[in-house]
Amino acid sequence: MKTDRSDILACLRGSGDYVSGQQLCERLGVSRTAVWKVINQLKAEGYRIESVSRRGYRLVESPEDVLSEGEIVSRLNTTWAGRTLYYREETGSTNNDAKRCGEEGDPHGTVVAADIQNAGKGRRGRGWQTIPGTALSFSILLRPSFPAERASMITLVMALAVAEAVEAALDGNMSVRIKWPNDIVINRRKVCGMLTEMTMTPELDEIQYLVVGVGINVNNESLQEFQEEIRDTATSLRIEAGRRINRAALLGDVLGRFEKYYQTFLETLDMSRLRETYQARLQGLGNEVRVLDPAGEYTGVSRGINDRGELIVERESGERVAVYAGEVSVRGLYGYV
C-alpha cells in the first residue's frame, strides 16, 4: 500500500523543484511534523534533500540503487499495475506470494517484489535464487476475463515490456533481444527469465487469476556470482553496462510499458497489434532453430511469430510448423552451434 513516505518521495521526484512543506501537508493530508520526520528518514537512507526556508524541500539526488516500497511507488506512472504493492526484503518465491494474493482477493495488477528470492522457480521446474542487492524479482497478479487459451500470450507481452525497459535503462546503447517466448538476451547471453502460472475456477472453467513472474539479473558484478551451470550463458545489466542500475526505476518502467501493451493486447486478444514490435526484437529470426518436441526433435528456420504468439518454424521440406510450447534452441545462442 502507498505510505506517507512513498507519497512524499513521489511528490519531490515529480516536481523536480522545491515543494513547500505546506503543499506537502495539504496534498497528503498530514502534519508538518510528519513531513519533517519523513524527510529526515529519507536523508538517513541516502537521499540528498535540500531544505530552504520559504521555499521548501527539493530532491537533489537519490541513492544509486535502493529497492524499497517507497522507492518503487515513487517511480510508478501507472493506473493499475503495481498500485497494490508488497515489498519483501527476502522471500521464497514472489510467484507463490502473488498466488496467495490471488487467493486472498487482492486486485488486478497487484505486484510482489523482493530483494532476495531463495526458492524461485524457472521453466521445467528449475530453481532460481538471487544474491542480495543484485536482482529484480517481481510477480504481477492479473485477473483477466479472456479465455484460458489466450493466456500464454501474456508472457510475450511482458517480454516486450521488459526488453524495452532494459534497453532504456542501458541508455539505448545496446540491442536487447527476445529469445522466444520470453528470455531477454544481451550480447547472446540471458539477462532475464519469466514464468507465467494460471489458476482456474473449477466450477466455471474460467481463469481465476494469472501470475507472471520476472527475474532480471541487474547488478551482479561478475559472472562468478552466477551458479556454475548458467555461468557460460548468463549476464547482468551491470556487467554489460559497466555501472549500477537502479532497480526501482527499472521496475517502474517495466510496469508502465506492460500496462500499455496489456491494454493493446486486450483490444484484439492476440498479438496482431504487437507482432511487428515483438518480432523486431526476436533473436534468431531467419536463422536455424532446434525444436525439442515430445514427438521428436527437429530443426528449421525461424520465420517469426503468428498472431497467436506461436513461433513459426520452416522445416527443410518447406512445411511451416507453429510451435505453441516447448524448448526452442537458437543457433549461436546458449551453446547451440
Secondary-structure blueprint of this entry?
Elements: H1 4-15, H2 21-28, H3 32-44, E1 48-52, E2 56-61, H4 69-74, E3 85-91, H5 94-103, E4 111-117, E5 120-121, E6 127-128, E7 135-142, H6 153-169, E8 176-179, E9 183-186, E10 189-201, E11 206-217, H7 237-241, H8 247-268, H9 275-279, E12 288-292, E13 298-305, E14 311-314, E15 320-323, E16 327-330
Parallel strand pairs: 3-4
Antiparallel strand pairs: 1-2, 4-7, 5-6, 7-11, 8-9, 9-10, 10-11, 12-13, 12-16, 13-14, 14-15
CA-CA gap between termini: 49 Å
Strand and helix order: HHHEEHEHEEEEHEEEEHHHEEEEE
Number of helices: 9
Helical content (DSSP H or I, runs of 4+): 25-40%
Find the CATH superfamily of the largest domain. Answer: Bira Bifunctional Protein, Domain 2
CATH-scheme architecture of the largest domain: 2-Layer Sandwich
The overall pLDDT average reads 91
Structural domain tally: 3
Query: Could you say which structural class the secondary elements and strand pairing correspond to?
Result: alpha+beta
**Residue share in β-strands:** 25-35%
Instruction: Identify the overall geometry.
Output: globular
Strand order of the largest sheet: 3-4-7-11-10-9-8
| Rg computed from alpha carbons, rounded to a whole number of angstroms | 21 Å
Low-confidence runs of at least 5 consecutive residues: none
Task: Provide the CATH topology of the largest domain.
Answer: BirA Bifunctional Protein, domain 2
Record field, number of beta strands:
16
Name of the CATH class of the largest domain: Alpha Beta
Q: Major sheet, described briefly?
A: 7 strands, mixed
